Amino acid sequence: MKTKIYVETSIPSFYYETRADAEMIARRGWTRQFWDNLSQNYFLVTSLAVLDELNNGDYPKKEKCLELMEKLPLVSIEPEIAAIVQAYIHHKIMPGNPLGDALHLALASFHKCDFLLTWNCKHLANANKFGHIRIVNSLLDLHNPLLVTPLELLGGNE
Fold it and tell me: From residue 133, how far is each of 21, 34, 109, 141, 146 by CA, in Å?
């Protein structure tokens, strides 16, 4: 069985990133290298929350970002997800916007994804939060997905 990865909004955004500073060029390159060369080795999923975020933005390459995600299966947003999101916000794991990062983490945790793939290194792929997330997910009897960037997956799934 393939490793299941929840793909968060920042991934298609960085695939089509247009900023020219070195960090943005590097992230775009790593994202494309993962997506084009390795993503077929994984079972990628996303959610309506990601599609809504991509749809609601005003940015270049919006249609291309949506096209990149259109073939991915969608995980369902079950009623239990709202309580998980509120627990993350209550325990100060994620910022107070229930339609943002807390929702992505809740979906990846609830649906037992092995990884949550993101470039959001402030709220999601932040090693300073991993222990706190693990504790709260354990209290909620939830799976703990690894929160990673495309760069961390470039070694493949050996």
Answer: 32, 26, 10, 12, 10
Pairing of strands 74-75, 43-47: parallel
Question: What tokens does 34 get?
Answer: 């993962």
Length of the chain: 158
83-130 pLDDT tens trace: 999 999 999 998 777 678 999 999 999 999 999 999 999 889 999 999
Cα 78 from chain centre: 18
Could you please state the CATH topology (level 3) that the domain comprising 4-153 is classified under.
Answer: Rossmann fold (3.40.50)
- Whether residue 68 contacts residue 29, with contact meaning beta carbons closer than 8 Å, is answered with no
Give the DSSP H or E segment for 54. Answer: helix 48-56
Q: Hey, what are 100's tokens? A: 């943002």
Neighbours of 75 (CB within 10 A): 21
